[in-house]
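Trying the structure run again after the queue cleared.
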Amino acid sequence: MSDKVNVLLIGGGGREHALAAKLHHSPRLGDLWVTHPENPGLSRLGHPVDVPVSIREIYRLQQFCEKKQIGLVVIGPEEPLAEGYADKLAAPGRVVFGPTQAGAQIEADKAWAKQLMRAASVPTAEGRVFTDAEAARLFIESRVHDDDAIARLFSKAEGIREPARRRLAIDALVRIGTALNAKQGYANADVTIIRDIGLIKTVGGDLDPILTEARAVARSWDAPRPDLPVIKAAGLAKGKGVIVPATLREAMDAIEQIMVRKAFGDAGRQLVVEERLEGVEVSVLAITDGRNILVLPPCQDHKRLRDNDQGPNTGGMGAFCPSRSLDDATMAIVESEILVPTLDAIRREDIDYRGVLYAGIMLTPAGPKVLEFNCRFGDPECQPLMTRLKSDLIELLLATGQGKLDQINVEWDERAACCVVIAAEGYPEKPKTDVVIEGLDAAMHVPNVTVYHAGTKRDLDSQIVTAGGRVLGVTALGDGLKQARERAYEAVNKIKFPGMQFRRDIGA
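Done. Tokens:
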């Protein structure tokens, strides 16, 4: 391969902007081509790919790589990896950074990943996989019999043989109780359902047995319970398919949302229900060439939308690096008991895994346990990692793809990095787009700050506007995390647009 390398970067978010910025600093970079030039950050750094980017027309991208003499393909997001882009774009003289479709199952199929971890004795949360929504509901209900009202309800429901009729009656009772506890009217049709199915026996027109039980059941349905399991869509859901319910109602709604209403599409064909782990969550990313492992500095991500880990799960509202929660001894355990056994298990499946192996880990009192694996750089973990990386990224990615990772020395900036994500109004449900963003130039002039573009674009007047949920990743370096976060928030406070959301406790 010649000294200069033409690079194709696939993906268009903040992670890809961070990768592009680091690729741009490499003395080995020839031409950089980007698949998402609508991102203003990427458009400044690379040339636009002028063919469709779709697995159905992958031959067009193959021809593009040949025509432009692409020597390195870097695949950022999980979707193209799960669709098999790495398999299709690999060629003699061309290195692809990112696992094959088979390897990407580690993220794209949580049920498969759970089986892999069990086979390799990798410490992880206990869990079960469901393909039927009612079976998942029954499993969760079986765990809450310590509540008297719930225990009475399920005892009464045991005589109803048909699962659909049983569920119809329970839902009707909960609706009645919810209305009564809110001092609102209930639907007579729900009373008819309960009577006809025989969930609660009544004499004549006496409704008191139904109404009394309904009030009690609805209170239990909404009572906080710290012992409820975590509910996950088994497939790819862009970081939003994990729900940690606080109440039985939230747990049932999660099953309905994922498996019945298909809020995450095909990702919800299977459901993983697993025990809730307690502790500090950290992100440990490693780069592997299939045999060698390079463990990157540990990061800490913030998934919830609002301060103090409140609100819905998101793709990530901020991250910092390095994490203070992992000491050297714990990191050694993560490497020897999680990363190495997982990679060995992947090899036993005859998968040549080359790329990022990202472990989301909970530091429990019993030791580190895997929450889930990802097959790519995290977003926003990638932003502080790339900001701290001092080595040549092209050299690192080429060595990974060529199976020569053991020949590379990687240097990191000793300073800490903190990334604060700014999201659009309505995120994560319905983010508001086409809102003009002000103050970007001022933010980028704060010392040691980089503003990575994620969900942005230019409008017809060349103004930068919102174009997605997570809009910007404001990332700063500092002599310690305190200074890094102070600089990041100084820059964040210079950016203005209506409805902007961000957490104020990243790295606190």
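The chain has 18 helices and 22 strands. Worth checking whether this holds up in the mutant runs.
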